[in-house]
From TrEMBL:
<dbReference type="GO" id="GO:0030145">
    <property type="term" value="F:manganese ion binding"/>
</dbReference>
<dbReference type="Pfam" id="PF02777">
    <property type="entry name" value="Sod_Fe_C"/>
</dbReference>
<keyword id="KW-0464">Manganese</keyword>
<dbReference type="InterPro" id="IPR019832">
    <property type="entry name" value="Mn/Fe_SOD_C"/>
</dbReference>
<feature type="binding site">
    <location>
        <position position="137"/>
    </location>
    <ligand>
        <name>Mn(2+)</name>
    </ligand>
</feature>
<dbReference type="InterPro" id="IPR050265">
    <property type="entry name" value="Fe/Mn_Superoxide_Dismutase"/>
</dbReference>
<dbReference type="Pfam" id="PF00081">
    <property type="entry name" value="Sod_Fe_N"/>
</dbReference>
<comment type="similarity">
    <text>Belongs to the iron/manganese superoxide dismutase family.</text>
</comment>
<keyword id="KW-0049">Antioxidant</keyword>
<dbReference type="InterPro" id="IPR019833">
    <property type="entry name" value="Mn/Fe_SOD_BS"/>
</dbReference>
<feature type="binding site">
    <location>
        <position position="4"/>
    </location>
    <ligand>
        <name>Mn(2+)</name>
    </ligand>
</feature>
<dbReference type="InterPro" id="IPR001189">
    <property type="entry name" value="Mn/Fe_SOD"/>
</dbReference>
<protein>
    <recommendedName>
        <fullName>Superoxide dismutase</fullName>
        <ecNumber>1.15.1.1</ecNumber>
    </recommendedName>
</protein>
<feature type="binding site">
    <location>
        <position position="52"/>
    </location>
    <ligand>
        <name>Mn(2+)</name>
    </ligand>
</feature>
<dbReference type="GO" id="GO:0004784">
    <property type="term" value="F:superoxide dismutase activity"/>
</dbReference>
<dbReference type="InterPro" id="IPR036314">
    <property type="entry name" value="SOD_C_sf"/>
</dbReference>
<dbReference type="GO" id="GO:0005739">
    <property type="term" value="C:mitochondrion"/>
</dbReference>
Length: 175
């Protein structure tokens, strides 16, 4: 994860900074064509930064509570939708492992339905349809050094370091 943070996440931050500078200049120049042309770079790099910032807060070493199951209202919401935490994890892993290429698996809060839902997204697309509660990166850069190309093994193991306290705090704020 150190390489993931220092190299990959930093690359998104750097790319976002460059895209924002160019976009700011395009605004000053009233260059609408350039503003439109910069949208993919803003989405990719901005999404990469947002997603990874959420991702790091989702994780904690075991000695700091990583992997301790959720409780309270968050657990109740998960059980309401998936019957149990184990069923949620199983469904999340199945859907997220099936992301073609690179992307993210999310547990999000749908403000309209007032329910927690699993959403998968490609690339670095940020979760904008729900309040992001928990995001798991399934780009190979998230797991290749330890798990090679075995995404399902990574998804099985990541739950041992999920920081459910952070997820629960996001859930409370979302409601």
């Amino acid at each position: 994860m150190k390489v993931h943070h220092e190299k990959h996440h930093q690359a998104y931050v750097n790319g976002l900074n460059v895209a924002e500078e160019k976009f700011e200049q395009a605004l000053k120049d009233k260059d609408v064509i350039s503003q439109i042309a910069l949208q993919p770079a803003l989405k990719f790099n901005g999404g990469g930064h947002i997603n990874h910032s959420l991702f790091w807060a989702n994780l904690a070493p075991k000695k700091e509570g990583g992997g301790e199951p959720p409780n309270g209202e968050l657990l109740s919401a998960i059980k309401k939708e998936f019957d149990s935490l184990e069923n949620f994890i199983s469904k999340f892993n199945t859907l997220t492992a099936a992301v073609q290429g690179s992307g993210w698996g999310w547990l999000g809060y749908n403000k309209t339905t007032k329910r927690v839902e699993i959403v998968t997204l490609p690339n670095q697309d940020p979760l904008t349809t729900h309040v992001p509660l928990l995001g798991i990166d399934v780009w190979e850069h998230a797991y290749y050094l330890q798990y090679k190309n075995a995404r399902p093994d990574y998804l099985k193991a990541v739950w041992e370091v999920v920081n459910w306290k952070t997820v629960a705090a996001r859930f409370e704020n979302a409601k």
